Amino acid sequence: MPPKTPSPLKTSEKQYRKKTPLDPISANKIWADICNQTERMERKTGPFQFDVRKLIIIPDKPNYTTPDGTVTMKEYEEAIKLLEKVDPIKKREKIPPEKYNLPATVAQDYGWYSKPLIKKHPLFQFPKGMCEITEYADTYYKSQGRNPFQKRDFTVKDHMGKGPTSANPKSPLK
């Protein structure tokens, strides 16, 4: 029995053969085969013709309007009054229990008649207080009319003719 030779290492990667450059004739033949194959796979259809008998007419959208003319100021004011009568702004700002007698949806059932069970007791209330810095800034603003932490506004009038920050250019020394 002949001695066993060690087998080459097997790799999990695919081994690709080296690509040899194709001559132009072979490349054109491959391209022609691909083109012929795609041509055979395509579905041939005739020229497009519009069939008037199968025409479906779609109506305009319900909100689409074409203005007939300009609206006068009187018509505009009447429209605004009618809009306020139908849907007043004050009614829009109310919460649903104030607007309606009963809940409109099932989701509104929860919390519809919600009122606090226990009245607020001052012993258990902890409102946010002001710290010393905030109190100082508040009193400073009330007395001076400006924020103590805000930097002073820069104006050219303040710095006219005062040393290196002058707005006027200096003449050269003689």
TrEMBL record:
It comes from the Eukaryota. Keywords: Cell projection, Cytoplasm, Cytoskeleton. GO terms for cellular component: cilium; cytoskeleton. Residues 150-161 have a biased composition (Basic and acidic residues). Residues 165-174 have a biased composition (Polar residues). It is found in: Cell projection, Cilium; Cytoplasm, Cytoskeleton. Its main location: other. Residues 1-22, 146-174 are annotated as: Disordered. Belongs to the CFAP144 family. This is Uncharacterized protein. It comes from Physcomitrium patens.
